[in-house]
Design goal:
Helices cover 90% and strands 0% of the residues. The chain has helices at residues 2-35, 41-79. Helix 1 packs antiparallel against helix 2 (41-79). The mean pLDDT is 88.
Length: 81
């Protein structure tokens, strides 16, 4: 039973981070689309750079999730008899 809990704990963190990163990636893209509807140049710049920062940080979260899941799969494959 402890091995099952260990497997679940190993997969829970990367999947949770990946789902949150995908949510923020979509939020950043939506913010970027909204930035192009603004008429005032300063508001456009602020919204544009904020959305790019959100997209960049969530992209890093997505990459972390992909590599962590890939590493967990490789370790699981090597542990099988």
């Amino acid at each position: 039973m402890p091995a099952l809990k260990s497997k679940i704990a190993c997969w829970f963190k990367p999947v949770l981070i990946g789902v949150a990163a995908l949510f923020f990636l979509l939020l950043g893209v939506d913010t970027l689309r909204f930035a192009y509807t603004l008429k005032h140049p300063v508001e456009f710049l602020l919204c544009f750079f904020a959305s790019n920062l959100i997209i960049l940080i969530s992209g890093v979260g997505c990459l972390y999730a992909v590599f962590a899941i890939r590493k967990a799969k490789q370790e699981e494959h090597h542990l099988r008899p």
